[in-house]
Amino acid sequence: MRYLQFGLSFAFAASLVACGDDDSESFVYASGRHEVSSYEDLSNCVASKAGAVEYVDTVAYVCAGIDGKNKWVEVSGVEDNPEDFKVCSDVKEGLYAFSPHLKSLYVCEDGAWIPAGDKSSEAESSSSSAKSSGSEPSSSSAQQSSSSAKSSSSSSENGGKSSVVESSSSSAKSSSSEVSSSSAPQQSSCSAKSSSSSSEPLSSGNQQDGSEFDPVNNTLKDLRDGQTYKTVQIGDQVWMAENLNYKAENTYCLNNRDTNCTKYGRFYMWGPAMDSAGTWGTNGKGCGYDKPCSPKKSVRGVCPEGWHLPSYFEWKRLIVTVDDSITEYDDENAAATKLKSASGWADGGNGDDSYSFSALPSGYLSYDGYFNFEGKETHFWSSGTQGDMWAFCMVLYSNTDDARLTSVEMNSGASVRCLKD
Question: Is residue 80 within 8 Å of residue 99, measured between CB atoms?
Fold first, then answer.
């Protein structure tokens, strides 16, 4: 798996009091926990606050010195005794946990929690054999993922190779790993070509903008190309109930057939999905493969005006809303059944589409130009990042009932569902 070089320097006060600094107040972590409503509301992570823990809703972040920079790192658990951490399973591979008592950050690796500082540079070079990650992100610009999945071009489930992507597949990064067999949840990286960081405009010619939303008939008209999409309200969120099919740079139809774009929408590289060229907005400008990126909140990306690319936390909210048996996101949930379409999924994997989200099994486009797993899974981009080459997808599989949030290479082809501002 991919190893991370961490220069962790935790400076703790004996009473575990995080010292105030600049414009932030002092927080006494020994007597309770400090909670804020969003990542942007976390206090300044400076050297004097190293080791402090703050929460965004129920998600814990630790202020840590990583690669010479102080950053908030998301952790899946905070326990004094590492033996009390949740089991280091496959779905938690690459996630972090923190022990205030031992002043140590741990990473889930090959079934065991290992101190994050004990990484070797030799191991880093073996990143191409990495396992696919679990789901929790670090910050929107920090913690690099240890997970991905390299799709096998000889797999019988591969739909075919994209002639558009093939010419550049040799330049794709080799930091992805093996795709699971179809009999298990596909923890695959939806990865494609390095031009996802392209600075070219997303479209050429007429740059007409705007959209028309009809809440009575539940439709959205994208005035850029005149296409109309179904929409659905789920809880307090209004989602597109079809995949985006706006033609832009580095976007592809399944198996390079236009009829598949009509059915499934387009596969977008993460850079174009974020509108890295800044054609439609500025919040995602410059975000792309292998480029440091701290996207501002609410990234319109390639979505119609008045809509945006969902964040990691907005996907979480959808999953929790749909699965009313949970109050916070967990990998083991029953949301997929309610989000998947009632037909089209292989191996008896159809959903009941009880929320009219109507997710179809479009598969994804791998980094080496192959269309994979049509009928068996679908991947939706988020604006949330995990390092410079990884972003988060919400993934649904034909053989599981859970909706999974997993980190994948930005160098990829995945679907886009836009969320109303």
Answer: yes
Nearest residue to 297 via CA among 286, 311, 285? 311
pTM flag (> 0.70): no
Q: What is the pLDDT of residues 168-218, one digit of tens each?
A: 333 333 333 333 333 333 333 333 343 333 333 333 344 689 999 999 999
Q: Give the whole-angstrom CA distance, residue 119 versus residue 144.
A: 14
DSSP H or E stretch at residue 164: helix 163-166
Give the whole-angstrom CA distance, residue 63 versus residue 50: 5
| pLDDT digit string, tens, across residues 124-159 | 333 333 333 333 443 333 333 333 333 333 333 444
Q: Is the pLDDT higher at 113 or at 323?
A: 323
CA-wise closest residue to 251 among 274, 226, 223: 274
On whether both 223 and 117 belong to a single domain, the answer is no
Parent domain of 120: 17-125
Pick the more confident residue, 49 or 151. 49
- Provide CB contacts within 8 A for 205, sequence distance 6+: none
- Pair 117, 169 in one domain: no
Q: What is the band of 66 on the pLDDT scale with cuts at 50, 70, 90?
A: low
**Under a CB-based contact definition with an 8 Å cutoff, are residues 382 and 170 in contact?**
no
What is the C-alpha end-to-end distance of the chain, expressed in Å?
A: 38
Alpha carbon of 83 to those of 79, 80, 92, 133, 400: distances in Å? 8, 9, 15, 21, 29
Give the whole-angstrom CA distance, residue 45 versus residue 65: 9
H-helix or E-strand containing 48? none
Looking at the structure, do residues 276 and 399 belong to the same domain, yes or no? yes
Question: Two tokens at 358?
Answer: 């109507």
From CA 90, how far away is CA 167, in angstroms rounded? 34
With left for phi above 0 and alpha for psi between -120 and 50, is residue 255 left, alpha or beta?
left
DSSP-based three-state secondary structure for 415? strand
| Domain co-membership, 285 together with 379 | yes
pLDDT of residue 151: 36
Asked if residue 246 and residue 289 are part of one domain, the reply reads: yes
> What torsion do the CA atoms of 143, 144, 149, 151 make, to the nearest 10 degrees?
130
